[in-house]
Design brief:
The structure is a single chain. With 248 residues, the chain is α+β, with helices and mostly antiparallel strands. It has 10 helices and 8 strands. A 3-stranded antiparallel β-sheet has the order 1-3-2. Strands 6-5-7 form a 3-stranded antiparallel β-sheet. Strands 4-8 form a two-stranded antiparallel sheet. Helix 4 packs across helix 10. The two termini are 35 Å apart. 16% of the residues are buried.
Amino acid sequence: MTVEKLQKRFYSKSEIAEIMELAPNDKNFANKVQTRLNNWGYKYHYSSKRVEIKRVPSTVEEKLRELLIRKLSLDKQTNLKAFAIVMYLLNTDYTFQTSPWNTRASILYTDYGISIADSTMRNWASKLIQRGILLKDFGTRQVWRTYINKYGIKCQERVSGDEEKIAEYEKFKIKRSQYLEEADRAYQEKSNTNKISPTRWKYTFSKLWNEFNCCYYNVKPFVFNAWYDEDYQEIFSLTEKIVQNLIL
């Protein structure tokens, strides 16, 4: 269902209640209405019987913020520039598409001077995935590994195309299967059950890390669903405008 945006006019209490999906007899009705209007970027005059909308979101950033709050339930403090660039890169940049989240955060900082937590980007992607807007491309993947460098810093590197590391990755996969089976067998014998071990992955990656001094994994790129409603069309149109202003 698309978002019903407010216009500069008077709205009855029942109209506002319907738009905001609130019960008119809610004891916190006034507070909820005013909080939402403030967060969505409207200027208004509130009374017990009606609401007068005096100003609506008009800039690119204001329009995007309202849609992100109402469509994706994001916070009003969302970094709009970061969101716009992440959407742009997920759609156009293969290196970014096939990188782990930590590396994506580094790319944003190095190339665009924007500091954003990888957990924040994960949250954005999760909300888009839940709504069927963002999909994982299981037909394409890149192999990465995480390791600790000589300074004790955890690092990530892409190993697809590196024959030596890919050969080690194949050994890593064989060992991974072996250790998973080991963990399950030990748990089943101890517990007299046919269930898999609840700690099988912890056991397996501990053994793999000690043996290989790193961890290999696949990164699957995201693709955008070709079909989405007018609100998402506007969201991506607005993000494009923000990116264009940053790049040009």
